[in-house]
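2024-03-11 09:14:02 DEBUG pipeline.ingest accepted 1 chain
2024-03-11 09:14:02 DEBUG pipeline.ingest length=314
2024-03-11 09:14:03 DEBUG pipeline.predict start
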Amino acid sequence: MEGPELSVVRAPDPDLVKEIDALLAGVARSTGHAAVSEHKRTATLVAAGGRSSAGGEPHLVAGIVARDVGRPELVGYAPLVGDRRTHQYAVEMALAPSGDAPALADALVAAASDVVVGNGGGTLRLWIARASSSDDDRARAHGFRAERDLVQMRCPLPLPGGRRGPAIPTRPFRPGLDEEGWLRANNRAFASHPEQGHWDLATLVEREKEPWFDPDGLRILEADGRVAGSCWTKVHADTTPPMGEIYVIGVDPDFHGRGWGRALTEAGLDWLSRRGLTVGMLYVDAGNVAAVSLYRSMGFADDHVDRAYIATFG
């Protein structure tokens, strides 16, 4: 059997972006989860618009697209993001349900590794959603080792009353007024986080333009006249069942130790429940034992693991 035809693009044109979006939507419908992360999808859109990435956004180094020989439709897409100055890169893969998944995955991983080598070498992180033992084997065959597990946890909504802590007052985010305060609290809360820290105004404004963004769903907690923390929710209406995600939650370090992380999570879940959602969802680093224990005490249970593998090339 012939392998897929691969193309490496640096700045996808609008027509190709439409094809990529159609592929991502089809994969999401088939699997029940996003085909690639918000960060990498946004990087593709920024590159297609001919713009430089915002300070907190990854830079699209290459978009690797795959088609079956002699057929026009996309069967695979791998956005490779990173920084040539630091030689740090990351890649994910979206594979069409109708394609030869093992062959596609092997081809896309090999192509991403080649791009890294062509850029002078560096560290490449390969993210796999719903990682399995066969994914572990494939990663090892390409020279990767497992580095980090991200657990998707789910809970029923509304939360049972017996699992609740003390409530706190929150209000909706105010576009045009709250950006500076939110960024300060977020960047302090995630100072050492590889994806969520170091956002700037352009990054936040890009998210506010997303069709799913709802300022009412970004719950703000104020204390001492400033943003002390927030719980940003996101509704996934196209999944089965529809789910409400705790997208970003953080408390400014000045306010740690007050139990506000739990209270903000509950405030976000309450808002999602009022929207009619019956399933809540979030992602948490498996190594964050305290957070995992907290969420389990609230009624969350593990659904699946997304895994990062790491290798150095060149």
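2024-03-11 09:14:41 DEBUG pipeline.report The first strand starts at residue 5 and ends at 9.
2024-03-11 09:14:41 DEBUG pipeline.predict end
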